[in-house]
UniProtKB/TrEMBL annotation:
Known catalytic reactions: tRNA(Glu) + L-glutamate + ATP = L-glutamyl-tRNA(Glu) + AMP + diphosphate
Protein name (record): Glutamate--tRNA ligase
Keywords noted in UniProt: Aminoacyl-tRNA synthetase, ATP-binding, Cytoplasm, Ligase, Nucleotide-binding, Protein biosynthesis
Signal sequence region: none
Keyword Lipid metabolism assigned: no
A Pfam entry, by short name: Anticodon_2
Glutamyl/glutaminyl-tRNA synthetase class Ib catalytic domain ranges (all copies): 7-322
List of residues binding ATP: K256
InterPro entries referenced in this protein's UniProt entry, alphabetically: aa-tRNA-synth_I_cd-bd, aa-tRNA-synth_I_codon-bd_sub2, aa-tRNA-synth_I_CS, aa_tRNA-synth_I_cd-bd_sf, Glu-tRNA-ligase_bac/mito, Glu/Gln-tRNA-synth, Glu/Gln-tRNA-synth_Ib_cat-dom, GluQ/Sye
Complex and partners: Monomer.
Functional description taken from the UniProt entry: Catalyzes the attachment of glutamate to tRNA(Glu) in a two-step reaction: glutamate is first activated by ATP to form Glu-AMP and then transferred to the acceptor end of tRNA(Glu).
Amino acid sequence: MANTATRVRIAPSPTGEPHVGTAYIALFNYLFAKKHGGEFILRIEDTDAARSTPEFEQKVLDALKWCGLSWSEGPDVGGPYGPYRQSERKDTYLPYVEKIVENGHGFRCFCTPERLGEMRAEQRAAGKPPKYDGRCLTLKAEEVTARMAAGEPSVVRMKIPTEGSCKFVDGVYGEVEIPWEAVDMQVLLKADGMPTYHMANVVDDHLMKITHVARGEEWLSSVPKHILLYQYLGLEPPVFMHLSLMRNADKSKLSKRKNPTSISYYDALGYLPEALMNFLGLFFIQIGEGEELLTMDQLIANFDPENLSKAGAIFDLQKLDWLNGRWLRESVSEEDFVSRVLAWAQENDRFREGMKLAQSRITKLSDLPDLTGFLLKGDLGLVADDFSRIKKVPLEEVLRILQIVQPDLEKIFEWNAESIEVELRAISERNDIKLRNLLAPMFIAVSGSSRSLPLFDSMAILGRSVVRQRLKQAETAVKVGVDAAQAKNGQ
């Protein structure tokens, strides 16, 4: 395949804060396209209508642009194969689904969510992997027609071979073989008429002339489904490349429950986008010690997709800090440094909004650093003693509050002062905790002090990803104190 024909894509779902893993996969595709003189395309996979929002889509665009990545085609710039949002391509997929059914490679399934739930529970109880048991596979055409005419909800599933295995060559893992018995009869078309990820993915990659699909290794097990769909439709599949997942130092999967994963978090803490891309790019190239500081152009020059590691990419925050420090000291001029500091402090109106809240709470301007400094800090360095002085809220209760609050705050759809206040009040009522007792540890966890700017406004200014990390750090600090106290009392 000629280099000029190379077309790759990044296809994030706008269902939450953009993950640093998205930047990792996007960077690989970007480097691949640049190395081969090809095109890098952005497609928004928003088939999950309940969770996808225009706000999250904009966050995706902003985050990737902050990373220094640009695309030749996408929802914001257009292109010859648009639209580039799957929600706007709904009518595109139906003929492909119908072709699969008409050719006997797919079937209508009328099983209810309740029935499927019971089926999976029984399979797990028997020690079997949960997958569709084929109940609707043998329905007569007349029955299918009658049930659909009666308005009974149904989905379309794909048929899977009952014997043998799927063999393919992956651009990273080489020859791979997956038995068909391990592959589920995937839903292709949902009851609401929207395609699933798998169906839309295959159709869009074909219509957008994608030549190489590079994504995380968690999708490796889905390749048989995709290859089968290409075969069912009589289409040529792209080259698949599955990249090792980014992991924590303990080899566990990188997740927001353990570490900060939002791109916005690293932006908010003052990491340079060049440093983050430099850090992620080192996973894809082979260089000698002392050559780690690389610009995007240097990453492209050193990029070798034929020599990729299958080992997990360890997200070493200390190495990122080290690289970021080198960028600040060695690659940013004094004038540019000052400009970046001022721009960083004013991002998302953080400085302006903080000053507006502080105006009525100070007697002189020199009071501002102590009152508002937390808006610009990273780790607040809190310890259990910072929380032990809260009146009428023992440390064990502080720990319980912090543990209760975190998952519920994640459910907030639009992150602003009003929605935060509503949710915290609701948490107070649901858990029968006095509001002032609930908010007291929150003040300290978020600002580092029991007296600060208004809590709800402060949380909105800091942003979801920073607040998430501060609450996590506060929980860790308090748990250390609780464990120490329990150990002491047990002696």
